[in-house]
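>> received
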Amino acid sequence: MSNALAIPGVTAVLQSFLNSVYNNAFSVLGSVSVSAVAPDIVQASLGNSKNAAPQVNLFLHQVTPNAAWRNIGLPSLAADGGTVLKNPPLALDLHYLLTAYGAEDNQADALLSFAVAFLHENPVLARAQITAALNALPLNSFNDGLRLSGLANQIEMIKITPATLGREEMAWLWTALKADYRPTFPFQVSVVLIEPKSPTVSGLPVLQRDITAQPNLASTFATLTEADPPNGQPAANLGDTVTVKGANLAGAAAVLLINERQATKQSISPLASVQDSSFQFMIPNPNLPPPQPNPTDLPAGIYILSAQVVAGSDTLQTNAIPFAIAPQISSSWAPGTLTSGKVTVTVPCTPYLRPGQQVSLLIGSQQAAADTFISPTNSPSFTFPALPPTPPVPVRMRVDGVDSPILDLTKKPPVFTGPMVKVT
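>> returned
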C-alpha cells in the first residue's frame, strides 16, 4: 500500500514521463516546459508574450473515492470500540487536466497531441517505470519522501483513462480557476491506495484446534442472558449482590463491567454461587469520604457486562449484556418540608458524581439539573426556580438516564419508599 505522498507521487511520475516525451532527440517542438501547478499560475508566468516558450501543464483538479474499493476492507474495531484490528485502505481516483500552451500557430495542438498519444499508449504504468521515474527526481527531502511513498508497490496498478467533461463543467471549472481556456485533455488516474499507519492488534496463531460434535442445536459456549439486581429493581446500587443468568457458566471466574461514556472498566472477582446456569457477584462499595479528586467507586450509568469463563487452559469472554448502576440518595437526607418558590437543595448521594455526567433531581414531577460542579462530588446541589406546593411526593436522582430507587417492588402492589418531601 501507499502512504499519503502517493498523490503527489502520481503527479511527479506523470510529469517525468511527459518530460521524456517532449524533450528527447527526436522532438520537433524544441524545448518544452512541463509543469504541475494551477493554470492561473501558468497564465501569470507566461503573460501575453508572443515569444513565450511552449509549455504543458498538469493540474489535479479533483480527488474522489474509488467506487470499486470503497466497501472493501471496512474498518474493523475490537469489542471495546477503540482497539484497531486492521487498517482499511483509502482508495482514491485522481482527476487531471492536461493543458497545452503555445505562442505559435498549431503549437498548442501539437503539444496536446503528443501528450494524448502517450497516455493512450501507456494506459497502465508499470511498477518499474514508476520506480525509475521517482528515482530520477532531483535529490531533496520532498523527493526522497516521494520515493518512499510505496506507489510502485501497492496492490493495484496505476491506470490512466480518458475522462469527459461537458461544456458547462468545463466552463465552470475554468471560471473557478480564473484563467483563460486553453486546449485541454481531461483524464483520470486510478486507483491510489493510501493505507493508514495506526497501530493494530492481531491475534496470536492458533496452537491447536479442538473440534467436537454435539447432537443438538444448543450452544456449548458460555452465554449470558440477564443480570438481575436484588428485589426486582431495574438497576443495582453499590454493595448490591447481582444474579447473572445464562448457560454453560460453571467455569465463570470474573465479571467485566465497562462504562464507555465514563471510560470505566473494572473486573470483579471472585464470584459466588457459581452454577452452570447462574452466578452472583457483589458491586464494590468502597468507603470514600470527601474530598475525592479521583474516586474509585463505579459511577452511576449504563454498563455492558460480560463474564470471563475458564475452559481448560483457556479463558474465554462471554457475550455482553446491558446493566445499570443507579445513584442512591443517602438515608441521612430527610428534609421533610421545603418552602415553595425558588429552592436550592443539597443532596448527599453515592456513588460520586463525575464532571460531565447528566445529573438532575426530581421532586414529584418537578425536575432541576444539578448546579455546575468541576470535581467529583457526593453532595450535589440543585436549584428549582419555582417549586410549587405539593403534598408529600417521592424524590429521586437521575444520573445519565438511571434513576435512584424509590419503589418497593417486593410488595403487591408496589409502594413508594422515599425519600419523601412536602412542599408548602
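>> DSSP finds six helices and 28 strands in the chain.
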